[in-house]
Write the structure tokens for this entry.
Amino acid sequence: INAVLPVRQFSESNYIFMVTSDGTVKKTALDAFSRPRTAGIRAIDLHEGDRLVDVAITDGECDIMLCASSGKAIRFQESDVRPLGRTAAGVRGIRVAEGHEVIALLIIGHGEVLTATEKGYGKRTAVNEFPVQGRGGQGVIAIQTSDRNGRMVGAIQVRDEDEVVLISSSGTLVRTPVADVSQQGRNTQGVRLIRIDDEDRLVGLDRIVPEADEADSEEVVS
């Protein structure tokens, strides 16, 4: 399991938006999932060697951003992706360089994009630095991947008042305020977020929701 989505009602005006590791995207009307079976129901047809990376609920008018381990990201309008049935395979969202894969799906809203690499470096970049393009291209540089940085392993949307948790492959966990992370343009390497040993690497990061946001979320799902 790699995504859990709280659903209040299965509205036909909302969609399940999916992205796979090879850059395929798919959206399906939320009400198509209103009658699950005990053994589950198929959500997407995956090609051999492909895997589901992330899933989000959208309203049909969102801006989507896909980020790849190569350090590239593409931003496009959700309306570029037509709705498909549950058993369909989807369409091309981003063209991923050989040897790389999609690592993040972002539904663009207020805030900045925080990117991080496997060797513990990262930065914040303003959302408006990522131009809206048509889906299916290679995207633009979100963070430089280099010998110092390694591959990009995470991208999340954050605000100044947030904190983030960084987790290494050895199990080290670091919690840091977003405000302490340097703001830089897209085509830069970033700064150190977490100190990583030679045999270790950063494997994930996530936003810590402020208490006010947590209270709002409880009201929504209660």
User: Anything to note?
Assistant: Residues 217-222 have pLDDT under 50 and may be disordered. The two ends are 23 Å apart (CA to CA). The chain is about 5% helix and 35% strand. The first strand starts at residue 15 and ends at 20.
